[in-house]
Amino acid sequence: MSAPVKTAAKSAPKSAAKTTAPDETTAPTSQPAPSTPPASLPARVLTFVSSMIGGLWAMVISAIDRISAFIGDWLFNGKKALYGLAVTRILFGLTAIGLLASNFATRLYTFGSGSAWNGEMAEPVSDFPKIWLFSAFHAAMGNDVLYTALYLLLGVLAVLFVLGWRFRIVLPVFFCLWVGFIEANDMVGDQGDNMFRIALLLLLFADPAARWSLDAKRRAKSGEWFPPTSQPALLGTMFHNLALVALTAQVCFVYASGALYKAGGEPWKEGYAVYNPLQTARFGTWPVLSDLVTAWGPMVVAASWGSIILQVAFPLMLLTRPTRLLGLLGILSFHIGIAVLMGLPWFSLTMIAIDSIFIRDRTWSRLSAGTVRRWNAAKNPTAGGAPPGTVA
Taking the CA of residue 228 as centre, how many other CA atoms within 13 Å lie in the half-sphere pointing to its CB? Predict the structure, then answer.
């Protein structure tokens, strides 16, 4: 009976050995990881430089993508400065009406047959009257009746220009006649005429009659010619915004170049440049006022140097809203001073008209809404509150 017990006792280690044997044979053996030799200094430098160039190139590409997306969105996503250009249109028309009305009594002597003594009837100084598109007034200079008829026609077109009636038809005709009228006698022109002509040319590609015009009322009733997302409408938007950019660049160039040109002159460097024209018979239109303004030397220096600083800084002041407000107030005061003290109202009004594009549409819209509200309240004072003469 003891034999089976011994057999079981002896066989137990064998079975244990058999069961543990597979674990020993399947256990993985740890091998040391192969070590990579360190890169040489030139290789590390090349890797670093290539990584920096790749990162810089990615930044440039990303910046170009963002800039191109912004430009595309700005050019095609709606017409900009519609109210500002409407103000430009209105003030341009008022400038033309004012100039024509103020010179009507002397029109023949200043521009017509009475100006033949300066030789421009036979050989004009400007090249514009030699171009058939702008030759109507020059051809009629010798005929007083015909010249007066053209003069009156130009005045009627200026009124339609202000009202914005059939502006796409009126503007090209007005442009050709106006340039021919101004350039017929080169002696009586000024730099405002050049800006007027350049701005009129750019307005041919813009939409100045989209607000505050008879055309705008007609469009509100009948709708636009093309759907907003159609190709003609997008092209019109693009040309409008590009004309706005070109007009902005022209104004900034005029102000900056004028300031740099002044800075090179001795009177401006010495600070007495404002004094000289105000003491002449041609530009000192208000002698008493001119003497009052130029009586104190530091004020003359401040006005002379301040005008240079304002003009050269004006393009940069447009970049942010606070500085833009200061720049616009400063340039408005500058042109009002020129209009009053130097007797150049039409030049100043032309520049103020162009500067109107730098005022945001939301500002013009709020101003328009407030004006209409106050006008309606003045027509019907009892509608908005207590009747006149009562104390609230």
Answer: 5
Predicted confidence at residue 16, as pLDDT, reads 42
**66 vs 19: CA distance, rounded Å:** 70
Burial of 350 (0-12, 13-18, 19+ CB in 10 A): buried
Q: Domain boundaries in the chain?
A: 79-223, 245-360
Query: Token pair for residue 97?
Result: 């009406």
Nearest C-alpha neighbor of 184 from the set 236, 221, 139: 139
Please, what is the Cα angle at 257 between 256 and 259, to 5 degrees?
Answer: 65
User: Quick one: three-class SS letters along the chain?
Assistant: CCHHHHHHHHHHHHHHHHHHHHHHHHCCCCCCCCCCCCCCHHHHHHHHHHHHHHHHHHHHHHHHHHHHHHHHHHHHCCCCCHHHHHHHHHHHHHHHHHHHHHCCCCHHHHCCHHHHHHCCCCCCCCCHHHCHHHCHHHHCCCCHHHHHHHHHHHHHHHHHHHHCCCHHHHHHHHHHHHHHHHCCCHHHCCHHHHHHHHHHHHHCCCCCCCCCCHHHHHHHHHCCCCCCCCHHHHHHHHHHHHHHHHHHHHHHHHHHHHHHHHHCCHHHHHCCCCHHHHCCCCCCCCHHHHHHHCCCHHHHHHHHHHHHHHHHHHHHHCCCHHHHHHHHHHHHHHHHHHHHHCCCHHHHHHHHHHHHHHCCHHHHHHHHHHHHHHHHHHHCCCCCCCCCCCCC
**Is 346 within 8 Å of 192 (Cβ atoms)?**
yes
Which tokens go with 228? 């907003």
Residue linked to tokens 């001073």:
337
What global pTM score does this model have? Answer: 0.83
More confident residue, 190 or 345: 345
pLDDT tens readout for residues 159-186: 999 999 999 999 999 999 999 999 988 8
The alpha carbons of the chain give a radius of gyration, in whole angstroms, of 39
pLDDT classification of 45: cutoffs 50, 70, 90: confident
* Mean of pLDDT over the chain: 87
Q: What is the pLDDT of residues 89-102, one digit of tens each?
A: 999 999 999 999 99
- Single-letter amino acid, residue 20: T
